Automatic annotation (TrEMBL):
SUPFAM superfamilies: Trm112p-like
Protein name, as recorded: UPF0434 protein B30_03260
InterPro entries on file: Trm112-like
One Pfam family cited in the UniProt record for this chain: Trm112p
Gene3D superfamilies assigned to the protein according to its UniProt record, in alphabetical order: 2.20.25.10
Organism: Celeribacter baekdonensis B30
């Protein structure tokens, strides 16, 4: 009998990167798969990806060091 598997988090579709930009600076974003975030180096913000959906709100973004 197989052990119960952990629920899988939906993966972010990298093709979305072509359409998404930072809402603050309109700069391109970098996908950080390990942290499940979209990084805007220009704005110094990391936008979370929750359940495979990027949360593109500046108020939800985490400030990062440039």
């Amino acid at each position: 009998m197989d052990a119960p598997s952990e629920p899988q988090t939906p993966l972010f579709d990298r093709r979305m990167l072509e359409a998404l930009v930072c809402p603050q600076t309109h700069a391109t974003l970098i996908y950080d798969a390990e942290a499940q975030e979209l990084i805007s180096k220009t704005a110094g913000l990391a936008y979370p990806i929750r359940n495979g959906i990027p949360i593109m709100l500046v108020s939800e973004a985490r400030k990062i060091d440039a």
